[in-house]
Amino acid sequence: MGTVTRADGLRMSIADLPAPILITRAEALHRLANALLHEPSLAVDTESNSLHAYQEQVCLIQFSTQEHDFLVDPLSLDDLPGRSFAIGGGIRSSKD
User: Fold this and answer.
1) 3-state DSSP call for residue 34?
2) pTM greater than 0.85 (yes/no)
3) Which letter, b or e, does each residue of 18-28 get, where b requires 16 or more Cβ atoms within 10 Å of its Cβ?
4) 12 part of a folded domain
5) What is the pLDDT of residues 36-93, one digit of tens each?
6) Which candidate in 26, 48, 70, 85 could, as Cys together with 63 as Cys, close a disulfide (CB 3.0–4.6 Å)?
7) Percentages (nearest 5) of helix, strand, coil residues in the chain
């Protein structure tokens, strides 16, 4: 298997990466949002069904920190205000 290089320069075997954590409940998402406030860096990606649907919707939200990957299933979360949430603070973004 291949290797990946973390942002801190550490190289890891893909087989040694921890399994992603699946979030399917609102209370787990709120705990995750609070924990992400303390992260120095964060990667976010979304997947939607816009290619195959007239009314597109976000089907998966991925958050990655230096230590963990989180997969949020927004379709299983019924009680999100406006179906969205924000992580505050000084936000910087880049698209690679």
Assistant:
1) helix
2) no
3) eeeeebeeeee
4) no
5) 989 988 899 988 887 776 777 888 999 999 889 999 998 888 765 444 455 545 555 4
6) 70
7) 20, 25, 50
d(C-alpha 32, C-alpha 41), whole Å: 14
Number of domains in the chain: 1
Q: How far apart are CA 16 and CA 14, in angstroms?
A: 5
11 domain residue, yes or no: no
DSSP character at residue 19 = P
Q: Are strands 11-13 and 21-23 parallel, antiparallel or unpaired?
A: unpaired
Instruction: Give every CB contact of residue 79 below 8 A, 6+ residues apart in sequence.
Output: 26
CA 81 to chain centre: 18
- In 3D, which of 48, 4, 83, 57 has the Cα closest to residue 69? 4
Asked if residue 93 is part of any domain, the answer here is: no
